[in-house]
Amino acid sequence: MKLAIINPNSTESMTQKCKEVALKFKNNDTEIWASNPENSPKSIEGHYDEVKSLAGLMEEIKKAKDWGADAYVIACFDDPGLEAARELAEGPVIGICEAAMHMTTILASSFSVVTTLNRSVPIIEELSHKYGMSKFCRKVRAANIPVLSLEDGTCNAKQKIEKEILKAVEEDNCEAIILGCAGMADLTIELSQKCNIPVVDGVLCALKMAESLVGAKLKTSKINAYSYPIVK
Amino acid sequence: MKLAIINPNSTESMTQKCKEVALKFKNNDTEIWASNPENSPKSIEGHYDEVKSLAGLMEEIKKAKDWGADAYVIACFDDPGLEAARELAEGPVIGICEAAMHMTTILASSFSVVTTLNRSVPIIEELSHKYGMSKFCRKVRAANIPVLSLEDGTCNAKQKIEKEILKAVEEDNCEAIILGCAGMADLTIELSQKCNIPVVDGVLCALKMAESLVGAKLKTSKINAYSYPIVK
Amino acid sequence: MKLAIINPNSTESMTQKCKEVALKFKNNDTEIWASNPENSPKSIEGHYDEVKSLAGLMEEIKKAKDWGADAYVIACFDDPGLEAARELAEGPVIGICEAAMHMTTILASSFSVVTTLNRSVPIIEELSHKYGMSKFCRKVRAANIPVLSLEDGTCNAKQKIEKEILKAVEEDNCEAIILGCAGMADLTIELSQKCNIPVVDGVLCALKMAESLVGAKLKTSKINAYSYPIVK
Amino acid sequence: MKLAIINPNSTESMTQKCKEVALKFKNNDTEIWASNPENSPKSIEGHYDEVKSLAGLMEEIKKAKDWGADAYVIACFDDPGLEAARELAEGPVIGICEAAMHMTTILASSFSVVTTLNRSVPIIEELSHKYGMSKFCRKVRAANIPVLSLEDGTCNAKQKIEKEILKAVEEDNCEAIILGCAGMADLTIELSQKCNIPVVDGVLCALKMAESLVGAKLKTSKINAYSYPIVK
Amino acid sequence: MKLAIINPNSTESMTQKCKEVALKFKNNDTEIWASNPENSPKSIEGHYDEVKSLAGLMEEIKKAKDWGADAYVIACFDDPGLEAARELAEGPVIGICEAAMHMTTILASSFSVVTTLNRSVPIIEELSHKYGMSKFCRKVRAANIPVLSLEDGTCNAKQKIEKEILKAVEEDNCEAIILGCAGMADLTIELSQKCNIPVVDGVLCALKMAESLVGAKLKTSKINAYSYPIVK
Amino acid sequence: MKLAIINPNSTESMTQKCKEVALKFKNNDTEIWASNPENSPKSIEGHYDEVKSLAGLMEEIKKAKDWGADAYVIACFDDPGLEAARELAEGPVIGICEAAMHMTTILASSFSVVTTLNRSVPIIEELSHKYGMSKFCRKVRAANIPVLSLEDGTCNAKQKIEKEILKAVEEDNCEAIILGCAGMADLTIELSQKCNIPVVDGVLCALKMAESLVGAKLKTSKINAYSYPIVK
Q1: pLDDT given for residue C214 in this prediction
Q2: Hey, are the CB atoms on B175 and D126 less than 8 Å from each other?
Q3: E76 has pLDDT over 90
Q4: Subunits in contact with chain A (3 or more CB pairs closer than 8 Å)
Q5: Residue ranges per structural domain of chain F
Q6: Which ranges constitute the DSSP H helices of chain A?
Q7: Which of A35, B28, C75, C228 could staple C182 via S-S, CB 3.0–4.6 A?
Q8: Do A135 and E129 touch (CB under 8 A)?
Q9: How far apart are CA B11 and CA D69, in angstroms?
Q10: Which residues of B touch A58 (CB under 8 A)?
């Protein structure tokens, strides 16, 4: 199968990080295409950044479709443009927050999310409502780090995330942690061992969910919500 | 006060219709600015059309802010770009679906929505969840008319809407009807009389809600969710 | 338009305070009628006080109707008698808790409420469920002050409220504060500046919501829930 | 134990009917006191009638307390004044809608309610939300009979109720029926046999729930919500 | 009436404790049958222990039915096998968690649960959702004691429970406590007095609920969910 | 990876059918182990049948663990014993209802379920609540066929299912169909084409979800809910 992973922001190192995770965990016969728009914000921190990323993101979806993608992963934890992309595509389109939340409920009776900035907390809380997952989501926490500090290694990003996970373990009565940013995709194993709790990354979850759906020969329903855009 | 009403699609006759409703119902000291993006879809029918409208919509929000707007109405029943616009603006930003749903719960213990196309039904249902209004929303119904038929008078649009309202009255046990499209803003009085049930339009509701919030000297909270976009 | 503001308790200074807020913020063409029953409890602190206020409250609604009221505000944060008053009246009847909660969700993704006594906390929590607002309500907090201490200046009422707001800001991850008592209507501006968070008062919100609904020519639906009382 | 059953309306034949049900089903050592206010509406049909009944209802609660009541049943399916009565009393206060809904969930995975008038439907729906029972409540239906027709035998009341139950059985996928009016308390056995589904009456349920709570030596919590009214 | 109380674990001292509570609080004409399976786990601590208890539990239900039971109490706070037992029996089958939660909402606007081990917390939280009681349940807390320590007097079980109740009173804003284990059935009076809050036990609640339902001549609905098992 | 698929009933032809679906859709490197208990009911139709299957099901889980299973699928749409099996196992344990519901929400904004018998409808509705999926589940429908008629070809099972799907398409406003029985696993492609709507089978979904979780190196959290059973 051919899988397109699209990072909606324009930071190529994040796109590469997602690609590396995918290459490491993908099935043998999965071909990976990873891209990002050029004219998108450097990072997605809030609703406006989401909006600014959408035109480019849609273009990448179209390019991926031309490439022959069987499924699409949108690699930003706010899951921007998910439903619009589903209208464009026939193959399944998977958000990384969505995939992580659904899959984690199979492993644990509850989870907390650790994301980057406080401003992303209400966005992720709203996603948990939208996906029916609020019942399982103990708390959405911010480590108070800018997204790009995950790339440039400033701000002691990893230490702050670890500290926030340990607080979640102590205070939230949660049984798993979801990392709330595509830029954290490379940290799961280390953090899981250090903090002694399953730590789940959405990029990896979405990759596997995409392989699952394609493997099951399932496609986006074209009845109502995700029917093709009307040509105008 | 200065109120910007922004129609996210590019059909000027709809913008004018919204403006006329506003001019007819506004407070004396409310100054109306009505606009639409030029490069937006002709109508917003589904998630992809929403996404296509957002860049232009944000530009209009910025123009309105430069004009000195005290509040902003986004005149499309899908409430596209609402949260992103709130990040940009200091004055309140009001969606027409949002305003109609909130205000109707003060007048009636339940309502049904009559919108244009089936593909918009799940979008509006999701909005009712997002706003905490699903408890009051009996049913979202489609009259099966394209948005633009409301402008060009084809399809017997008005008759189809009336028929769907009468079905709602008979089947849904609802106490009010909300019209689920900005293009229906001029139909409320006639339909309310014909169908013998309060018929609520979101453009009008959002206009008055905007005047209310500005009159109460209330502004968008800049803590977390709607804080200003981070400059990159 | 003619707006009746009815304080269900019998403390005239609270009625006056509500009237002053209304006179300060009302539209030019809004005429204010403020009253309270004579034989009502001095303050409404709990369900029994609510019940004791209702007969007098209904009489005031009737008097206001005779006066020609276009809309009615019930100025007690427990929103007593709201639905019964809607049966009596044709013009909209607005509760101050209701108005504050609905309008605040347009300005902020979440809020906490600061009220007077602990016994009012479950009442307000239940209202948040009833209005579909529990999703937005982070916490209902009590400043542990009797309602009348807001009138006689005892108990350091203002300082206690301020302290509780600051705790909410620190602990609740909320983006706005709603003051949970009509007797706090004069404190919003000062507290908002001191605590650096939007502070919302229900009396003001209900005033503006009333003007909105009347301005939009919307009236209480007389289908089922709020149909006129059956004469016996 | 001493049990007070208070019918909030002033129709003595309904009070007698409730008393007869209680005398027939009570434990041996339960002493029944049945009363109604004199100055209450003849029947409770809507929120305003509820409000009109409350002052008298509270007086009856006080009289019952003087009599030495161990528990109190409020015999109207709208459960008016429940929380206020709990503030006054130390012994448990039980609503008949409340008791019927809770107890029915032990017997059936879902139920529908058949009440008198359409205007009572939203009231009972709201009660189902308040009690956490909306998940079990398939539908609230009205037989379109005035409350008093249950007393005077007009309107073919019994036939209309039976017909509505049969519709519920056919359309609602429910496993039990709750009768939504104290005036229907004498109909359960006949209707249950005719319609071949458990038919539950709230007066009987509340009687038994009262005996249960007193038998378990449980009393109303005086922490916060139901603490004694503050003397003014 | 004849009431069967079945302790699903094989610790006879717990069965006896339940029986003693029942004998102390039962109605005069209630005959008590208390039993437990022989081949069940010594205590039910988690889902697997539940599963291991079910075959024996079903046998006890059948024996009790042969004995002529009018109702059945399953005396384990996880309410194992409740629905399956309802299929077997005609008389009502009551879970102790279920009974305690329903009855407590009549006495208090909210409660917290204090159970034995952390692993039982998500089980009880899920039950609160299942019964529609999550709205009333402030928190499920574990005293961190093995179930059997309640029998053998080790671990300072009683002190740990008391300490956890006091934490709930201080932190949870709750108005009643439910003890989350059948083995705590003898502690309610002492703990209620010491901690100054109503403390509710499920065994006692289920006993009285059983007497109520039988007294009201109500039986399990045999439509759909709890219809008799299909013979194979 | 090594995947155990356990059919909790004792009908081997159903086990074979599940195995065939798995062999057809599995990844190349997935090894399939399919089994069923010998002493289980022939089919699972209701809660009691579930209970009767659990002891054998747990034994199969243990055997599969000894075989070295990396993940486990419980192939009955009631998802019996899911949580207990998670306590026993380290590898993920997936229910077929669970997997189907989660995965379908990625493809469609809503679904209806078509199952065998009416008595299974409330069981599946309750599962949809438990998994947070009730928001997406339009309706659970029964085709009124015994489970085993899917094996022996009696009752026109396939035609009845097709008819019920077409009713769902017409009446439920759903965008996908989930087949609510493991015995329907071979029907998806044919029904999907005939009824022109995505038709989803839980066995296939659970297979792919299992491969996903193992591929992502995710295991059951051993904190609280699913920690290993305590040895007694």
Answers
A1: 98
A2: no
A3: yes
A4: B, C, E, F
A5: 2-95+205-226, 97-202
A6: 12-25, 47-67, 82-88, 96-104, 121-130, 149-152, 157-171, 188-195, 202-215
A7: C75
A8: yes
A9: 71
A10: 48, 51-52
What is the spatial order of strands in the sheet that B111-115 belongs to? Answer: B137-142, B111-115, B177-180, B199-201
Phi, psi of D155 (to 5 degrees): 70, 5
Taking the C-alpha atoms of residue E141 and residue A188, their distance in angstroms, rounded to an integer, is 30
Tell me the shortest Cα–Cα distance from B3 to chain F, in angstroms: 35
Which residue in D176, D205, D224 is closest to E221 by CB distance? D176
Same fold, C2-95+205-221 and C97-202: yes
What ipTM did this prediction achieve?
0.97
Chain E residues with a Cβ under 8 Å from any Cβ in chain C: 109-110, 135, 173, 175
Q: How far is CA A21 from the centre of its chain?
A: 12
How far is residue E75 CA from its own chain's centroid?
A: 4
| Topology of domain E98-202, CATH | Rossmann fold (3.40.50)
* Ramachandran class of C74: left when φ > 0, alpha when ψ lies in -120 to 50, beta otherwise: beta
Residue F46 identity: G
Q: What is the longest distance spanned by two Cα atoms in chain A?
A: 54
Q: F211 and A212 in contact (C-beta within 8 Å)?
A: yes
d(CA A198, CA A192): 5
Task: Give backbone dihedrals phi and psi of F151, rounded to 5 degrees, phi first.
Answer: -90, -45
Query: Does residue A153 surpass a pLDDT of 80?
Result: no
User: What is the pLDDT at residue B153?
Assistant: 76
Architecture of domain A98-201: 3-Layer(aba) Sandwich (3.40)
Q: Closest chain A residue to E128 measured between Cα atoms?
A: A135
> Lowest-confidence range among A143-152, E222-231, F70-79?
A143-152
**Closest to E110 (Cβ–Cβ): which among C118, C122, C129?**
C122
pLDDT bracket for residue B232 (50, 70, 90): confident
Q: What is the fold of F2-95+205-226?
A: Rossmann fold (3.40.50)
Q: What is the phi-psi region of residue A81: left when phi exceeds 0, alpha when psi lies from -120 to 50, beta otherwise?
A: left
Confidence at residue A30, expressed as pLDDT on a 0 to 100 scale: 98
Closest chain E residue to F131 measured between Cα atoms? Answer: E126
Q: Rg of the Cα trace of chain F?
A: 17
3-state SS record for C181-220 = CHHHCCCHHHHHHHHCCCEEEHHHHHHHHHHHHHHCCCCC
Token digits of residue E7:
């302790």
CA distance E108 to A71: 52
Amino acid B152: pLDDT: 83
User: What is d(CA F43, CA F146) in angstroms, rounded to the nearest whole number?
Assistant: 9
CA angle (E3, E7, E10) in 5-degree steps: 140
Q: What is the pLDDT at residue A151?
A: 83
Say which CATH topology domain D97-202 has: Rossmann fold (3.40.50)
Does pLDDT of E30 surpass 90? yes
The torsion region of residue E220 among left (phi > 0), alpha (psi -120 to 50) and beta comes to beta
Instruction: Give the SS3 label for residue B166.
Output: helix
Architecture of domain C2-95+205-221: 3-Layer(aba) Sandwich (3.40)
Q: Do B224 and C109 make contact, defined as CB atoms within 8 angstroms?
A: yes
* Tens of pLDDT, residues D9-32: 999 999 999 999 999 999 999 999
What is the block-wise mean pLDDT of chain C (232 residues), using blocks of 10 residues?
A: 98 96 97 97 97 98 98 98 98 98 98 97 98 98 91 86 97 97 92 96 98 97 97 88
- The domain over range B97-201 is classified in CATH as 3.40.50.12500: yes
Average pLDDT, chain F: 96
Asked if the Cβ–Cβ distance from F198 to A212 is below 8 Å, we say no
Tens digits of per-residue pLDDT, E173-221? 999 999 999 999 889 999 999 999 999 999 999 999 999 999 999 999 9
